[in-house]
Design goal:
This is Bax inhibitor-1/YccA family protein. The protein is mostly helical. 73% of the residues lie in helices and 0% in strands. It is built from 9 helices and no strands.
């Protein structure tokens, strides 16, 4: 019986001739030497994710985010449009992360809207706390990124299952705390961070440390993906996760600097 698999049915070696008509010619010694001497296929040639893939995709998403931030900053966007853009970006971010299918278009839309949010918020902080606060926050974010990458590379911090579990629980708790704080502000009770003080500084510093440690999970996710040979398209998801964490870290650093400079 002929195979109904189109791959097999279309190949001459799978035609119904009593036996499969394979080419059984014996390769020569030179041919064998060439086969064994040929270099193995690289991960890129095999369609597997590489570090370069992650870097390129992360950079492209960051470029879109910076464009959105520049538009919001130069356009003088207010806080209301910024909050609206941030909420839509949050929905898109959840969609991009939860979807089984890799969706670069959704990720780029998130980057653009999140850029508008970041640009408008940064402009507001700059107007209230001085022009130097944004460059300081950028420098602090880059310093934290470099420190976490170095600590991860030398093995000072390892993304063990216990570490990941504790960090995820802490992240969930911090998210709930943030939502409660927003509700308090909307209800007119004021922000927990208002007035500064040791509590506000401590909470903000905790947010900076937590976001920085989440970078370790991102590094581990990328390294394991490369080691396990995940498909190249997963580089989009890895780069997107890194982008989200860095934006979160930047906003935490920005708030900490604002609290240290005066009342939030």
């Amino acid at each position: 019986m002929e195979s109904k698999n189109p791959v097999f049915a279309n190949g001459s070696q799978w035609k119904r001739d009593g036996y499969a008509t394979f080419d059984v010619s014996t390769p020569s010694a030179d041919q064998l030497a060439g086969m064994y001497g040929a270099p193995s296929a690289s991960p890129a040639q095999m369609g597997r994710m590489t570090l370069d893939d992650v870097v390129v995709r992360t950079a492209s998403l960051f470029a879109v985010l910076l464009v959105g931030a520049g538009v919001a900053w130069l356009g003088g966007f207010g806080l209301l449009p910024a909050i609206g853009a941030g909420l839509v970006a949050m929905v898109l971010g959840i969609w991009a992360q939860a979807s089984r299918k890799v969706r670069p278009g959704v990720m780029f839309a998130y980057a653009a809207l999140e850029g508008v949010f970041v640009g408008a918020i940064s402009s507001w902080y700059s107007a209230v706390y001085g022009n130097g606060i944004v460059p300081s926050a950028v420098a602090g974010t880059l310093a934290a990124f470099a420190a976490m990458l170095a600590a991860y590379k030398v093995g000072v911090i390892r993304a063990t299952p216990k570490f990941a579990k504790v960090l995820l629980i802490a992240g969930l708790g911090y998210l709930v705390f943030g939502l409660v704080n927003v509700v308090l502000v909307l209800a007119g009770a004021g922000s927990v961070y208002a007035g500064g003080g040791i509590l506000a500084v401590g909470l903000s510093l905790f947010g900076v440390v937590l976001a920085s440690l989440f970078l370790v999970l991102d590094f581990d996710h990328i390294e394991r993906g490369i080691r396990n040979g995940v498909p190249q398209r997963e580089a989009w998801r890895a780069g997107f996760g890194l982008l989200v964490t860095l934006v979160w870290l930047y906003l935490e650093v920005l708030r900490l600097l604002a609290i240290l400079r005066g009342n939030d």
